[in-house]
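Inputs:
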Amino acid sequence: MDNLGEVSQATITLFGLSITYNPVTFLMTWIVIAFILILAFSARKKLSLVPGFLQSIFELIYDFLKEITLGTLGDEDGKKHLPFIISLFVFILCANWIGIIPNLFAMFGTFLGFLISFFDSSIIVSFNSILDIKLSIPDDRWFSFLFDIPAFEEPTRSVNMDLALGLLVFAAVQAYGVKNKGFWGYLKSYYNDPFPMKGWRALFFFLNPFFYLNLIGAVANVVSHSFRLFGNIFGGGMIIVIVSSLLKFFIVPVGLFAFFGIFAGLVQAFVFTMLAVTYIQQQQ
Amino acid sequence: MMVSSLFSVIGSGIAMGLGSIGSAVGEGMIAMSAVESLGRQPKASAKLLRIMIIAQAVTETAAIFALVISLLLLFQAGTDSLFKGITYLSAGIAIGLGTIGAGLGAGLPGASAMKGIGKQPRNSDVLTVHMIIGQAVTQTSTIFALTVSLILIMLAPTGGLLKMAACLGAGFAMGFGAVGPGIGDGLVARFANLGVARDPRNMGLLTRTMIIGQAITETTDIYAMVVSLILIFVI
Amino acid sequence: MEVITGEQLIKALALLAAGLSMGLGAVGPGIGEGFVGGKACESIGRRPDEANLITKTMIIGQAISETTGIYALVVALILIFVV
């Protein structure tokens, strides 16, 4: 437990610059992308009027988000932004849920090992206290791979991923604002009432305290938008890791996975997407 | 007596003592509304009792988190050092103060659901589902407090004066920081429940607005968690 | 026992103060934003047709209620990294 706050690091040198990155997040992001692509292609292969299981899930997500996006942004703008919104939702949802699978494997493996230990004396269950139960399993058993699951974690647990997503939305929103209002109209939205800047006085925009307030507000939006996702996923993951290690992966409460993995992951994906929609709406 | 166990016993007391305030008041509010509704609709007593117990059980979650940390601190045995003692104390402060808000906050939607069932017992199923979603999201602030205090308990036992002050600061930041957003989340869920009780057809719309409102209310809580993680890991 | 200099003491107290500043600073905005969100839900319950307008106003209102929370965050970060 001493390496609690550490993240895995790797360095590559590119054009003389040494770049440090997190290989686990990197790998997991690609796994999520591959997962979504495989799902999408296999759902597309068997399109039918009466939807199958996979197709109905995608249609459910599409209908739900389409109703909200078109209702908030209006028909024309809504249709323009719908692909972005749906990709954001599907990616974050899969990224939040991808961590459940290895954890479930580990849980299932421990349970299985405990059951087998009644018949097989090579598995040693040491029961020191209620918080310290250990299962030791020899390597030559066929199920021993269930106990050596590497640290697969959700890519959204890394703050870099969340900040990148937040900045992506921020850039899209600002670009849309410039396109929609024109460059001057966009700048004007940063120094609003009660000190309207007109004519030559507009050159002294930096004396207007509301300019700085709005600037801080814009930065704080990005920070809160991305750290909300980070805090929830990181907090849930941390609790699962610590509680599991306290109980030595033995009595891992299933409710923890259900709540932190499935419920919190869904709610946070929805909140992130909805806030992106509202930020776009504010630039209209 | 070892220094660290002295501090961990104090922390354990703080965690359980402060941690039970919020849940106790919240459960009291739920029971109050249930009794009030019972006076209005005596026929629905079985339904009211069942949903009251569900609501109180969810409200209890915050106090149970405090109990878990309190027991962990009470039976803590490890490296003995002043620094470890300070981290135990900070963990107790974080979870103790941090559960007040969510306990109180989870009581508010429960109370309004009881009131709604008293007005219109037919809507009880829809209201129960909505109430549980609201209460579950309200627990987020306690979950952050639990995360920080578990990290503080598990921290490696090395550090000087700076690290000690940082850990104490992290405990205070997370503890106080979770109070306001917890109550605020409860307020959002309370009014959303009243809206559902008035017209259950609006449930989808109201659930959506409630979750967005609660997520934004949580922002300051997230700032508090970021500051305490910086204090723990960066300093 | 190592000797504690005045500078170290100031730094240590600044870290403690950062925690207190963020913690206490988060209480007010939390409750205030809760009121905004709650009342927005109440009005949507009354007039579901105006849901988009109400949600937009709610988000702007909450963003402004949060300003003091952001000040607390800025002060805490200054206390941690600058002092």
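The mean pLDDT of chain B is 90. Flag for discussion at group meeting.
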